[in-house]
Design a protein that fits this description.
It is elongated, with a radius of gyration of 20 Å. About 50% of the residues lie in helices and about 15% in strands. Strands 1, 2, 3, 4, 5, 6, 7, 8 and 9 form a nine-stranded mixed beta sheet that branches. The chain is an alpha/beta fold and about 290 residues long. α9 runs antiparallel to α10, α11 runs antiparallel to α12 and α12 crosses α13. The protein folds into two domains: about 160 residues, NAD(P)-binding Rossmann-like Domain (Rossmann fold); about 120 residues, N-(1-d-carboxylethyl)-l-norvaline Dehydrogenase, domain 2. The protein contains 13 helices and nine strands.
Length: about 290
Amino acid sequence: MTRVAILGTGTMGAGMAANITAAGHNLTVWNRTPRPEAIPSGATTAPSIADAIKGSDVVLYCLSDDAAVEQVALGPGGVLENVSKESIVVDLSTISVELSSRESHAYEEKGIRFLDAPVFGSKAEAANGGLWTVVGGDQAALEEVRPVLEAISESVHYMGPGGSGVRMKLVGNLLVAAQLLSLGEAMSLAAASGLDLDKMLDVVAVTDFRTPIYSGVGAAIRQDDFTPSFALKLMHKDAGLIRQLSAEVGASIPGTEAAAGILAEALEQGLGDLNASALARVLAQRAGVNLHS
């Protein structure tokens, strides 16, 4: 039985916690704001980060942005100050390459093994243990924590040395942004052209360019359902991280630049807490059409 600590029981952490306990691991959880409803049966709640990670074999955190990770991992009273050399620290968050590198160096200086292991998927996948985890860091450390990661994941992928996981996550989220943008554009163009949107989506669902995002998100847009599983404000944040990475390596990302502009416009309209697919509302507004049935 592995002793696991999870720091953060929000949208993603709550589902992860339930699956880790279901897999038979010994779990302790901490959250900045107490959320009793997110604590699975059999788990222990800790009043502080130090208490949560004491004696843990594996320390996990999946937090919303750089600021949250900076505070929880590297800030006063955080993981770095309190973790023991026997623990392996795993950051499941989507953050900047720069912060992930600083985390890695800070833990390394203390002799702590660290993996950057962001996850693809959102609330439903976290609840169902169906995330896709991409890992950077020491491969031997990954093999030690693999049973814990497999409890939350459909698949676990070793990408290479430290920083490879977070880079892969940004590459993947570029593809997510591109699909959301292209779907919103296509639906707006179809509506403006007089096509039946349900029939359009029926075609999209069976062609060689079909994707789960097109099918699932397209149907939700038709129902005017933007219940957040991946908030638009987080997609906007990730677009900024992708742009930072592209600038560092000299890669051209015109599609992401376009998506970032639409996301920024959606934020200005107060859509940040809706699902990221709400960028389609901006495109529909520009085209003067309605996308819902």
